[in-house]
Design brief:
Blueprint: E1 3-7, E2 12-16, H1 20-48, H2 52-97, H3 112-115, H4 122-153, E3 182-185, E4 192-195, E5 198-201, E6 207-209, E7 214-220, E8 228-233, E9 238-248, E10 255-256, E11 261-265, E12 275-282, E13 285-287, H5 299-311
Antiparallel strand pairs: 1-2, 3-4, 5-12, 6-11, 7-8, 7-10, 8-9, 9-11, 9-12, 12-13
Helix pairs in contact: 2-4
Length: about 325
């Protein structure tokens, strides 16, 4: 449709014909308007509708959030269980040993392994949390089994002194530890022999004490083998053996209390040097004696004694 304008000179309306510039402006105006309108439609569509990729990312984010929430709930539950187990463990320890349990947690806790969490993505954090939860579950399970075992062990015992739990030599230092349970070099034959106990080095005449309440079931005196020896039966299938003694201060069938003096260190029998050969048996089988010194040793002393005992390759008998 043509446009008209009033011509003052001719005093009439004449047709307004566009020049090249005018036509170009009109075309550019249409193009720009179309572009702006397309952009507007795209923005509106993007705000209202999601693409397939966006839908996938949203679902993945919701799934990760749910996993994270589940992991957090599980962590909270496990923390509560651990707190209960710690309370039970403390109560059992105090009932047995009449003292507060030692703090085995390292005070110099290093949180460096968690520093990288700031730079991890959501999925990596979820995986890390799930892995830590699994580790804690294993620890809780192991701690629960140990507590149940301890509880069952003490069901029939009158008190903690009924099982071997102290050093059988008075005033023994950790560095007086010799070879323990296992295959060791015999001091005389220089062959590998099974060593069923632990060698505790001590001076002649040092007092030997009963490691638990019990009854003396056997006494032997000899210049061969284990030399002068005492065997004591304890509650729960435990038995302790004290060999290479000097003077024996108890008699057969005598009841003894934990800590009472039963003999003195000697060098009788086939012994390389004055010491006490000490054995702990459970249900007829020899077990590691170091594990039954817990009432006398601090955790660091226990680790040191166990390392010395295991790494000593030659016995004294």
């Amino acid at each position: 449709m043509s446009k008209y304008k009033f011509n003052k000179d001719q005093l009439k309306f004449v047709e307004d014909k566009l020049g090249m510039k005018g036509r170009l402006k009109v075309v550019l105006g249409y193009i720009l308007g179309s572009i702006l309108l397309a952009i507007f439609y795209y923005i509106v569509a993007a705000l209202i509708f999601n693409t397939n990729e966006e839908e996938r990312l949203l679902k993945e984010r919701e799934m990760m959030q749910q996993e994270y929430n589940n992991a957090a709930e599980k962590m909270n539950l496990l923390e509560n269980v651990l707190s209960d187990l710690q309370a039970r463990d403390r109560e059992i320890y105090m009932n047995i040993f009449k003292s507060a349990p030692p703090d085995l947690v390292n005070s110099s806790y290093d949180a460096a392994i968690y520093e990288k969490l700031d730079s991890l993505g959501d999925m990596d954090i979820v995986k890390f949390s799930v892995a830590k939860s699994a580790d804690v579950e294993k620890l809780v399970s192991a701690a629960g089994e140990k507590l149940n075992h301890i509880y069952n062990e003490f069901l029939g015992a009158e008190n903690a002194t009924d099982i071997p739990s102290i050093l059988p030599v008075k005033g023994l230092a950790v560095n007086q530890t010799g070879a323990s349970l296992g295959m060791k070099i015999h001091p005389f034959y220089k062959t590998m022999e099974m060593h069923n106990g632990i060698d505790l080095l001590a001076a002649l005449g040092t007092e030997v004490i009963a490691s638990a309440n019990g009854v003396v079931t056997d006494i032997s005196r000899s210049d061969r083998g284990r030399g002068n020896q005492i065997v004591i039966e304890h509650w729960g299938g435990y038995k302790t053996v004290y060999s290479h003694l000097g003077d024996i201060l108890v008699r057969k069938s005598q009841q003894v209390k934990q800590g009472s003096v039963i003999a003195r260190v000697g060098n009788s029998g086939l012994s390389f040097a004055p010491h006490l050969h000490y054995e702990v048996h459970l249900d007829g089988k020899p077990v590691e004696p170091v594990n039954f010194f817990f009432a006398d040793l601090k955790p660091e002393q226990y680790r040191e004694m166990l390392m010395i005992a295991i790494n000593t390759g030659q016995s004294l008998d």
